[in-house]
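During the second half of the funding period, the structural biology subgroup turned its attention to how the target accommodates small molecules. The most pressing case was zinc ion, which had performed well in the primary screen but for which no bound structure existed. We therefore specified the complex as follows and requested a full 3D prediction, including the ligand pose.
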Amino acid sequence: MNTNCLLKDEYLNETDGLIYCSNCHTPKQILIELDNNLQIRNIRCKCRLKAYENEQSEQLQRKQMMKIKFLRANCLQDNTLYDYSFANDTGINPQMHYAHDYVDNWDKMKTSSLGLLLWGDVGTGKSFFAGCIANALIDKGIPAMMTNFSRILNTISIMNPTDRNKFIDSLNNYPLLILDDLGIERSSEFALEQVFHVIDSRYRSKLPLIVTTNLTLNEMKNTSNIAKHRIYDRVLERCVPIKINGINLREENAKNNIKTVKNIFSSYTA
Ligand SMILES: [Zn+2]
């Protein structure tokens, strides 16, 4: 072997006649027997192998991050939802541990087709609770779509019936669907029919659904409106109710803002 062919960081090991790496002192070549002939093949030395594995794992991580970024953009249609995460939880909502439980037991919840019905007064953090579940599942690579009926109705009201059905069916491509603010959408016959269609399609697919609403459980159970009754019936069967009674965050924020302004405008009175 002509040692002039060696690179700066390699040397010829006189014992086995193979080229070694001067950094990690492991072989960069291997002897293999092929058709009764011994042949030399190039391999990665220990340090090259380590560098290669690191590169592969970084590439995988980058791919995973891209996937999660894409999922978040696709599943969370409102940018404010990006901030609804366990990391941003101030501990104001005493029921928040259920959100962790849901995420931790996602596989079981999915197999059992079980969702949640988050109900309680306006501004108590129901959307935050649901958004935390969505973001935590998305972080695990699970497509958790969070939207609301106002948005769905706006989208489908301009579609023909075939496209409308396709759109509603497409919501079942998401293992978890979160519908925010059930009950505030228009109560027209068309709107209720579409709401039923979405809920029923989800119900029949046996995929979990999380719903937030300002309605009380009694209002949902005892509605005299037949169209609403068949919607709420399906929700109540599959979505386990959790009353969210956190502090009214919007009222708290308003109070804090008044305090801030009082400090800035010395003569301000509310
Ligand atoms: Zn090496």
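Two results from this model are relevant to the next phase. The longest helix spans residues 46-75. The chain has a mean pLDDT of 92.
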